[in-house]
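so i finally got all the pieces together for this one. its two components total, 859 residues if u count the protein bits. some of the lines might not be protein, just check the labels. i wanna see the whole assembly predicted at once instead of chain by chain like last time, that was a mess tbh
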Amino acid sequence: MSQTAKRLRYVLKRLLQALPIILAIIIVNFFLLHMAEGDAVDVLAGEAGSATPEYMAELRKKFGLDQPLPVQLLVYLKNVITLDLGYSFRHDMPVLDLVLDRFVPTLLLMVSTIILAVGVGIILGLLAATGLNSWRDTLISVFALVTYATPLFWVGLMFIVVFALNLGWFPTSGMENIAMFYEGWDRYWDIAHHLVLPTITLSLFYLALYTRLMRASMLEQAGMDYVTTARAKGLTERRIMFVHVLRNALLPVVTMAGVQVGALIGGSVIVESVFAWPGLGMLAFESLFARDVNLLLGIFLLSAMLVVAVNLIVDIIYSWLDPRIEVE
Amino acid sequence: MRIRNWMGIALGIVFVALAGLSAHAQKAGGTLVMLVQPEPPSLASYQSTSGPIGLMAPKVYDGLLDYDKDLKAVPSLAESWTVSDDGKTVTFNLRKGVKWHDGKPFTSADVQFTIMNVLKKIHPRGPNSFKEVMEIETPDESTAIFKLANPAPYMMRSFGSYESPIVPKHLLDGQDLKSASIANKPVGTGPFKFVEWKKGQYIRLDKNEDYWKEGLPYLDRIVGRFIPDASTRTAAMEKGEVHYGAYGAIPNVDVVRLRELDSIGVTTDGYAMINPVSLIEFNTTKPPFDSPAIRQAISLTLDRQFLIDNIWFGYGKPATSALSSSYAATGLYAEGMPNYPGKPDLEAAKKVLDDAGIKPDANGVRAKATLDLIPYGEDWRRAGEYMKQALGDIGIQLDLRYEDVPTWLKRVYANYDFSMNVNYFYQLPDPVLGVHRHYGTDQIRQGTHFVNSSRYSNPKLDALLESGAKEPDAGKRGAMYKEIQEILANDMPVVNLHEMKFLTVFNSKLKGHDASGFGAYGSFDQTWFDE
């Protein structure tokens, strides 16, 4: 069988395996969410100021909250199979529209963060490892330690104070300048401008992690037998470092990056909140306090699918980085 | 005989004249970015009085009346109005030629539909405000005659666009009111038209070029922005990215710093129609708070001024009765109520407890309880910590509990699973609208939020509340409410803490945002930028 066909089979198999996982995630989340006191109607009525019990009962009936839990679950599962993620009664909009609307900003923030964190992390780790125990190594290690230990929200606020308030280089928050309502290229430029501070803030923590991981991994690989062999063959140190060692040292970093995509959605709640970035994390956070179960389940489902997909991509990158790892 | 309300017309003429005279000073144009926090669930102000909805919806909808800075009723969709001698017929003469944002004409049928089919049915306070309205006659397109079962003087204070927005019949009739599309895309007659709601980011309203007030509004656009983090809101205000934030959008602790800047203004005006008062509710059905003595002792012990100075940075006024002192304007507020001392009186508190037989045990503890705190921000936690310490001094030992909103609402108003609860209530422009719900026996409504959760019941008080609501004579009404306040100060089912002063923080270039008695819940038709 050709390599391509093999890979395709592998992908299909992995996708099939993911189905029960996603189903389990839905069911566990469903019951977890319903264990919390109060429901969406309580919140809506509380915010409204007051509402009669009859009106609240009517709303519960309309939302389907008067049904027993297993029935609600079955109805939900039935809808999901037909790709209907249900309706958010709080927002008066289909869950799919809401989630997709917020998915783009999240993806934007996530992708730029991963590129920045992994890219810069690898470079810094490489620099530290190649200059072991020099001032360069010490400086990078201290930097990594400090950023790793600093709370994200504090970094975000400090960035706002320094770069937005004092220097005025960047806007404080939001995704675009909403007093102007730019169109076309101006709008993309505006969004990129707004993206800088949140991306750097969210990257810092992960950057530190990848730097340390990359450094350790490089040092470990540098002591391997194949490096001695390469040196005996008469290869230059440069070639050994960048072709042989680097490629092997990347594996743990890629693994870590894959695992952390899920965590990134969670960690972005803080950054999204500080910078008023309209992403999924913020939506999930607000929905939890509003007991908007349908919307939360939709977000969880999408996040789960995202994590499954990213892990699959990571496995394929493995086989490309290290041909000894075969997909089957 | 009918008494024409010439006052309203005269005021209207003066208002129009003034607007004309000063037109040179105001400049048109500009985009106002205001903080809206948190993001509202919808813009259906006809079925929810939620704060963030109140910030946006009154720019789109008009009320029959508006209320000026002195809380006097002024014409809005109603050009003039008359109240019959017996107080049971109220006639509104509606403005002619007003159009909905979709171009359809506004008529008396819209008024009839709004009050009878919408506000009386699904508005949180509407069933109370319009309780006495039996029917609304519409002899022609510009006349609406309210027929009341009993006089309802308080009703005339609830025709503002925040409290009672007039909604388009042609877009709601025959639909399920709870899921009509105008809940998220409002269509009104107001100075601004709804354009777009980008979830998680902003709500955009553009100028209504056909607004019925000549030359208004001044602003081209209003954008309501959602910024979840309080520190970021402060930074955005400081940088000038947002121009206006009300109802504590900028926390008091930051206001203390911002108010020193020339570019920022701060005011406590614009909340008189809302009248917020902080308080402690008690579960009066079980020990230890089933005894009025312990509730009186708590009121005697707490240092209200300390709370105001240290937790709310000096913004507020100690409560001295069950009614806010801002009711003094209508003669309903009574001074010198017992158990509301100017300074805390620990000796008196201990004596009250001793006399009632609530004696300290070997450890000096007289009673133990859990204090629930309203989950609307850190200030309330700080307040709870103070109360724990202060009440510990008279032997009431407290544990504090701070939960999320749905859990707290369920605990206090549905399960009654609490013993004392810190909260705040909007007393609104009349006690019938804002205060009766807290004390009447008919307001013990399990599962309904912000009503009589203390489950206090006193037939004598109920009778007074009922007659107070219907009494058209201001002097007699004042006497009734004095008696009501005396009963409440002695029985103390609720300990009122302080008359809250919310803060509005604004960019100094922004003018005319305080034209309405509703402040931030006003229409902003006369708001403009001086630059």
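The longest strand of chain A covers residues 87-88.
Residues 3-93 of chain A form one domain.
anyway lmk what u think
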